[in-house]
Each structure stands twice: as structure tokens, then as C-alpha cells.
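User: Before I run my own analysis I want an independent prediction to cross-check against. Here's the chain; please return only the C-alpha cells and, at the end, one sentence I can use as a sanity check.
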Amino acid sequence: MSLTVPQLQSGLTSDAACRLFDSLEPVTADFMIGQWHGSEAPTGHPLDGLLAVSGWYGKRFDGPDEVHPLLFGTPGDLYPVNPGAVPMGLLNSLGTRMPRPKIPGVTTAFKAVKTTRYRARLRRVDYRGTVSAAMVYDQLPIIDHFRRLDDDAVLGAMDLRDSPRPYFFLLERD
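Assistant: C-alpha cells:
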């Protein structure tokens, strides 16, 4: 199964996303170094749509131990946010009951929890039978696993504790 980034952004079932993810090649930590723009691959997960309305931009990997897992803002005005200040458990439990229109000022509100400290690390992790680079959050029970779509794009699977299935997202290299 081979899908393009726009096709994945249009959505697919959770089972199809898992099959695609499992078919993709693993990546190394070195492959992930750099800044990446993120988008969602909707699968019906309770978190679908929340990153888009929040103003999430993507992630920045400066080195294996130097990762900004949440970048917000717009190009030229990007800032890292402390994921420990984001109520992921609440967002996951509220899930599909949350409104999805973009909320004015939400991106600005995240400036209150911006940080200069790195809040995650890249590690090789076995997930779904394949060892690949994964981003391990320092403060949250979350691991983002990555698989290669092409030289400049990866499919991510967020493994969030107490979530029965992964939340899928895309990263494209800036």
C-alpha cells in the first residue's frame, strides 16, 4: 500500500493506517534531524482535528537528545511549547466531543507555556514488530513512532497510554 501525503490527509480507517504504517521502512534518528511541518492523517481517533485547531506547526529535532516535540505559530514566528502543560489525558478523554473550528487566539494562548528547554528525545524503539526512531516525551506517557514515506516525509503513530489505538500524523521536512 502506497499513499501520498495529500491522500493521507484526506483520511483513512485506523486499520488501513496501521497496515500502511507496518509496511513502511523504519527511519534513524539522523534521518529525523531538522524541522518538520506536521499535519493530521484522520482515522476516526478521538484526537483527530485537535492539532489543526490548536495551531500546531510541527516538531524540531536538533539532535537525539535535543527535541522540541511541539512547535506552534507560523513560519518566522515559531516557538516550542512545554507538552507537560498540555492536558493530553483530558483532550484524549473529551476527544470527539470537542469543537473543531479553529479558535481565534489559541495559538497565542500557547505562548504562555512556551519553553526553551528540550522536552523529548529520539530513541530506537520496537513498535509493531519493527525497530525505528521514535520520539519519547520527557513528561508525558507518549511515544511518537516514525516510518518513512519518502526522503522528506514520515508517517507518525502516537502511542498514548490508555488509548486503544494510535493517533496518526504526518511530518514533512521544512
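Sanity check: Residues 94-98 have pLDDT under 50 and may be disordered.
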